[in-house]
Specification:
The complex is a heterodimer. Chain A is of the alpha/beta class. Chain A contains 17 helices and 21 strands. Chain A has three domains: about 170 residues, 3-Layer(aba) Sandwich (Pyruvate-ferredoxin Oxidoreductase, domain 3), CATH 3.40.920; about 180 residues, 3-Layer(aba) Sandwich (Rossmann fold), CATH 3.40.50; about 110 residues, Rossmann fold, CATH 3.40.50. Chain A has a seven-stranded mixed beta sheet, with helices on both faces. A six-stranded mixed beta sheet of chain A has the order 2-3-1-4-5-6, covered by helices on one side. Chain A has a five-stranded mixed beta sheet with strand order 16-18-17-20-21, sandwiched between helices. Chain B is α/β, with parallel strands linked by helices. Chain B is about 35% helix and about 20% strand. Chain B is built from seven helices and eight strands, in the order H-E-E-H-E-H-H-E-E-E-H-E-H-E-H. In chain B, helix 1 packs across helix 6 and helix 3 crosses helix 4. The longest helix of chain B is centred in the first third of the chain and has 14 residues. The chains are: A alpha/beta, B alpha/beta. At the A-B interface, helix 8, helix 9 and strand 15 of A face strand 1, strand 2, helix 2 and helix 4 of B. Strand 15 of chain A pairs parallel with strand 2 of chain B.
């Protein structure tokens, strides 16, 4: 039977075009109608080291990249060495080396990259040479490949096409027996190809976002780059200020004037933003914080992945105030929760955090085509006309949300206050009023429960076991369930709102005797959160905390081992 | 005369120079006919920051040191607004110095008023970035080891295109004139009023 998925990986030092090749090949596959998920690994340096880019693609929906690789390119010798555990008996490994004495279950093939690059006249084309070979091996449309190579390389189109042709002809002549069979998609749907960070950016734009301030920090910088590039087209104000403290407070200032506003960072930067989160809490400023996590503590593992900041997000900011923490599980959800977060910020007038991680933020996949999606925007309670001069910005209301006026509106003048305050905004130290104002704000948590995104439930309510998770492991879990023989045994609950916890979560969980929590962190933070809400004792806890994401094969092993 | 005042009575210490600053701000706003709805004042944390309650305009009582960044966000998001920030030597030169330098470099069209009394006073009299070297304060009983910051010199070297002045708070006409010129200036402007703290200033004379 022809398989319906395949995984290709390319590896080499930083600066050798590993990511470019991977992304171009992804676009070629999408042009053929394939669904795909990419994953790349790179160290925190600009040249040298060891970078990888891998793609798992299929004519059906793909949720995560696989661990096992079918086709491997090492653009310089030896970049396959550390990946031998990913090889199977059907793996093809291409590198420019003498493989006559190699002992491995995989098939190793010498690829004369240097000779071909000399023929082209540039050592820079080695990545495109690999594209030529891969296009042949998967029997893909040559014209589509060439078009996308030209689109990517612009003025270097010709030299790269030359490389592509040379490699393709070489493969045609020498590698016909290695061609890989895979089911091709029957129809081609219009898809996008985005990283999670880009999807967050598209969600921000489509959700009416107009102000973004951020200080660069891996792996959140992609949002800043994306929005900075779109600022003219979509009339955005995008600022890179002196530090994260400035970024967050600027975004808060912008939100005060009525802009749909956000900032973004990773854990270390978010630590600096904590004071602003707290400020937004008491001053009732609705804005969005994108927190794209990497492993800490401190500088940690800058270019790797982790879900270690969930509690940091939930408990961010000193003092007690309502906040919402959302977590997308994949790139499409990064789009969805990004515009949802802007709506929630406007509706609830309090900080809204969107927590993802390096795996989602910096991994590309085939997605919905975001530019074509229209989003209905909820602006919350805004007053545009005010009579008299006794406008109460912080008026007591049943849902805790008071109508807000923005500068420029006569009669709406008020003090937006970081001190405890009365209904007008003026400072107070009165015991009764302070308690009442705190209670008013906390009412917003109840309102939030009604309007925050509900959890996703996959599988049957009658399944034997319930997997519980949040964020990026969603992909590996769903991919594992797709591939498993006994998939009917499992259901999967993916929380999208991590704070406040909806009481429905307890009802869903209590219906299962056996529960398995899967998290990409070291201290089971979701378990801590759920335990804080109700009597919760998971049967099994599965963690991974080495900077690497879960792979579907790993999940299958862990789920079957715990049987 | 446009009314910029709230109906809350100022709580500065009797004799505090911030009464003069409060009056000069209102005079300058009024001279420029600024509408309360198009004006945003960002108050830092500190003695002068407490002026937040005495105004009735659009205003933000920000976090300590962040009045300038909050103001920048407002101005960038809505350039039609007149945006100013006010704070002390602690908030603007200490906790927020990085933001002050960044705003001066960007030459953003906001106005900053600094009540420089050479001390942290709301926290009852510790050394500030402008406290003279050697001064014995509550936090430096053995003497302040640092050179005091001369903000006019610093900012002029950062960006010669900005408006930067330091005036004696007691000269209210000069203060008002400079506040007005600063507000009219297209670009970044800052006016420091040099003050004596009536509550804790004696430490500096010892």
């Amino acid at each position: 039977m022809t398989p319906n998925f395949s995984t290709i990986k390319i590896a080499g030092p930083a600066g050798s075009g590993i990511k470019s090749a991977g992304q171009i090949f992804s676009k070629i596959l999408i042009d053929h109608g394939f669904n795909l998920v990419d994953y790349s690994e790179y160290p925190s340096l600009v040249r040298g080291g060891h970078n990888t880019y891998q793609i798992t693609f299929s004519n059906e929906k793909v949720f995560a990249t696989h661990f096992n690789v079918d086709l491997f390119f090492s653009v310089y010798p030896n970049h396959w060495q550390s990946h031998q555990s990913e090889f199977t008996k059907s793996t093809l490994v291409f590198s420019e080396e003498d493989f006559s004495n190699i002992k491995s279950k995989a098939t190793f093939i010498n690829l004369p990259l240097k000779e071909m690059a000399d023929q082209v006249g540039s050592p820079l084309v080695i990545n495109t040479l690999c594209l030529g070979v891969a296009t042949y091996l998967y029997d893909l449309d040559v014209q589509k490949a060439k078009d996308l190579i030209c689109e990517a390389y612009q003025k270097y189109c010709e030299i790269n096409l030359n490389a592509f042709n040379i490699a393709y002809s070489y493969a045609e002549k020498n590698f016909s027996k290695f061609q890989i069979k895979i089911k091709k998609p029957k129809k081609i749907v219009k898809m996008g190809f985005n990283e999670g960070n880009e999807a967050s950016g598209w969600g921000f734009i489509k959700g009416g976002g107009s102000f973004y301030a951020a200080y660069p920090m891996t792996p959140a910088t992609g949002i800043l780059h994306f929005l900075a590039n779109k600022q003219t087209e979509f009339k955005l104000t995008v600022v890179h200020p002196e530090d994260e403290i400035a970024a967050a407070n600027m975004a808060a200032g912008a939100a005060f004037t009525g802009a749909r506003s956000a900032t973004g960072t990773s854990g270390g930067g978010f630590a600096l933003m904590n004071e602003a989160v707290s400020f937004c809490g008491i001053a009732e400023i609705g804005m969005v914080y994108y927190l794209v996590s990497r492993p800490g503590p401190a500088t940690g593992l800058p270019t790797w992945t982790s879900q270690g900041d969930l509690l940091h997000a939930i408990y961010s900011g000193h003092g007690e105030f309502p906040k919402v923490v959302l977590a997308p599980g994949d790139v499409d959800e990064s789009f969805e929760l990004s515009h949802t977060a802007l709506d929630l910020a406007a509706q609830l007038q309090t900080p809204i955090l969107v927590v993802s991680d390096k795996l989602i933020g910096e991994s590309s996949s085939s997605t919905k085509y975001f530019p074509d999606i229209e989003v209905k925007i909820n602006k919350g309670k805004i007053v545009n006309e005010i009579k008299g001069d006794d406008f109460k910005r912080y008026a007591f209301t049943k849902d805790g949300i008071s109508p807000v006026s923005f500068p420029g509106t006569p009669g709406g003048e008020f003090l937006c206050n970081s001190y405890e305050h009365n209904e007008f905004g003026f400072s107070t130290e009165d015991a009764v009023l302070s308690e009442k104002m705190f209670q008013k704000r906390m009412l917003k948590t109840k309102t939030a429960l009604k309007i925050c995104p509900k959890a996703n439930f996959f599988g049957s309510k009658k399944a034997k076991k319930l997997i519980i998770g949040w964020g990026s492991p969603k992909g590996a879990i769903l991919e594992a369930l797709k591939l498993m023989d006994n998939k009917e045994d499992f259901a999967f609950l993916q929380l999208k709102t991590l704070w406040p916890i909806n009481p429905e979560i307890q009802t869903i969980i209590n219906a299962f005797k056996e529960t398995i929590v899967i998290e990409n962190n070291g201290t089971n933070q979701l378990v801590t959160v759920l335990k804080s809400q109700f009597d919760f004792n998971p049967t099994t806890i599965i963690n991974k905390n080495d900077g690497r994401p879960f792979f579907p094969e790993e999940i299958i092993d862990l789920l079957t081992a715990k049987k | 005369m446009i009314n910029y005042r709230s109906n809350i009575t100022p709580t500065f210490c009797p004799g505090c120079h911030n009464f003069l600053v409060y009056a000069a701000m209102q005079s300058a706003f009024n001279a420029l006919n600024l509408k309360t709805s198009d004006l945003v004042i960002n108050f830092d944390i500190g003695c002068v920051g407490n002026m937040a309650d005495f105004f009735k305009t659009y205003a933000v009582h920000t976090l300590h040191g962040r009045s300038i960044t909050t103001a920048m966000g407002e101005k960038l998001a809505n350039p039609n607004l007149t945006v100013c920030a006010i704070g002390g030597d602690g908030g603007i030169y200490g906790e927020g110095l990085n933001h002050l330098i960044a705003a001066a470099r960007a030459n953003i069209d906001i106005t900053v008023f600094v009540s420089n009394n050479f001390l942290y006073s709301l926290t009852t009299g510790q050394t500030s970035p402008t406290t003279p070297k050697g001064a014995r304060t509550k936090s430096t009983p053995l003497g302040n080891v640092s050179e005091p910051l001369n903000i006019v010199k610093v900012l002029k070297s950062v960006n010669s295109n900005i408006f930067v002045k330091s005036v004696d708070a007691k000269d209210i006409q000069e203060v008002t004139k400079n506040f007005k010129e600063a507000l009219e200036f297209k670009g970044f402007s800052i006016v420091e009023t040099r003050q004596e703290c009536v509550a804790f200033g004696k430490q500096l004379k010892a």
